[in-house]
Amino acid sequence: MMYKFIDLFAGIGGFRIGFAKVGFKCVFSSEIDSHARQMYFHNFGELPAGDIQAIKIKEIPSFDILLAGFPCQPFSIAGEKKGFNDIRGTLFFDIARIVEYHRPKVIVLENVKHFKNHDNGQTLGTVLKTLNSLGYTTNWSLLNAIDFGVPQNRERTIIVGCLDNVKFNFSCLKKRQLPKLKFILEDENKQEFEYLKEEDYTLIDNPKQQVSGLIFAGYRNKNIRVNGIRPNTKHLSRVHKQPNRIYSSEGTHPTLSSQESAGRYYILHHGKVRKLTIRECYRLMGFPDDFKLVGSKGKLYNRVGNSIVIPMVEEIAKQVKEQLFNPSHGIQHHSSPQQMSLFDLGLLLESSK
After folding, report:
1. What local confidence, expressed as pLDDT, does residue 237 receive?
2. In angstroms, rounded to a whole number, what is the distance separating the alpha carbons of residues 260 and 45?
3. Residue 77: its pLDDT value, please?
4. Which run of H or of E encompasses 299?
5. Which residues are responsible for catalysis (predicted)?
6. Average pLDDT, the chain
């Protein structure tokens, strides 16, 4: 049996690729950004629905899994009431109304690392409480791309909600050995690179590898931070703005940013300093080389920095399949969460007409 999923806040399809590789089928997608929708169309042959707030939930095909890398928004009255009263006016409300109507077996949500601390933890708490009120048992974890074979130190909050009193077990995710950046670089004999002149940067002596795998190897000769910085600390990465830092290809790479439209990611490789290519940035997210890159470089850098790491998604998908769709797996059951009140359900159905 082929289980189906929908891809909300789809971006350029990172979530979709990961789940499709495990055998799940996408039956619906939604994304508001016009450039992301264009890339999605060129790679998957379908144009995602636009603004999620305008979607008529009855027109969404039936599905088993909901995927969403939803934006982090403040919930103005978070923690004061129950269910949908806490999340009205946020984009998470649109996820919740789709969940209530279609009752998928599994929900997988993704957000930034600091989502767990957003609004002093009330935002995460409200999301979990809302899913609980809809009948889902929830669990969440902070996952890092470097644990899934990708040489990028990129931490993300992952939330999984399940029906049937089942709690997803994150400890079953299979992790890999710490990778090195040099293994995903393009062939020097087949590609022209943008090298820095030697007078434009400074390398430091005996750079040390951090726990995350990062090796801060030097910096561009640009202005450094002044406030609160001790003298003679140029060898420390924190005094340099991200676009001025240089990392060794023998280690990992820091998080690609959705705000970095110029692609100022510099690496030390074979004794020279150069920028990562746009294709290398997409490799750092796990995208295959046949993934079509459409549009200006600035937009392509924005899209990849706002995407999700595919190998991490693929491992999550494998465990979703094993734990939640494999009847022979020994799943841990929990007491049933409190269901939504009839009053809140009435509000929900009214708002989705």
Report:
1. 86
2. 28
3. 45
4. helix 297-305
5. 72
6. 87
CB 52 within 8 Å of CB 11: no
Tell me which H or E stretch contains 14: helix 14-21
pLDDT of residue 337: 43
Predicted confidence at residue 123, as pLDDT, reads: 85
Sequence-ordered list of residues with C-beta below 8 angstroms from that of 46, at least 6 positions apart, any chain? 29, 40
Q: How far is CA 330 from the centre of its chain?
A: 29
What whole-number distance in Å separates Cα of residue 193 and Cα of residue 352?
51
Q: For the whole model, what pTM was predicted?
A: 0.88
Read out DSSP for 79-96? TTS-GGGGTTTSHHHHHH
What 3-state DSSP class applies to 160? strand
Return the closest-CA partner of residue 151 out of 237, 293, 248.
248
Between these two residues, 82 and 156, which has the higher pLDDT value? Answer: 156
Q: Which two tokens stand for residue 295?
A: 């549009």
C-alpha dist (Å) from residue 353 to 8, 55, 61, 84: 19, 10, 16, 16
Concatenating the DSSP letter of every residue in 93-109 gives HHHHHHHHHH--SEEEE
Given a cut of 60, is residue 334 above it in pLDDT? no
Q: What's the CATH architecture for 4-174+308-351?
A: 3-Layer(aba) Sandwich (3.40)
> Could you report the per-residue pLDDT of 267-279, keeping only the tens digit for each?
999 999 999 999 9
Catalytic residue among 26, 72, 162, 281: 72
Task: Assign domain 187-276 to a CATH class.
Answer: alpha beta
Reported for 116-123, long-range contacts at CB under 8 A and 24+ positions apart, including other chains, are: 116/140, 116/142, 116/157, 118/72, 118/74, 119/74, 119/75, 119/78, 122/75, 122/78, 122/79, 123/72, 123/73, 123/74, 123/75, 123/78
- 281: annotated active-site residue: no
pLDDT in tens, 144-198: 999 999 999 999 999 999 998 999 999 999 999 888 999 999 998 877 899 999 9
- Taking a C-beta distance cutoff of 8 angstroms, is the pair 234, 224 a contact? yes
Residues of the chain with CATH 3.90.120.10: 187-276
User: CATH 3.40.50.150: which residues of the chain?
Assistant: 4-174+308-351
Q: Which amino acid is residue 158, in one-letter code? A: I
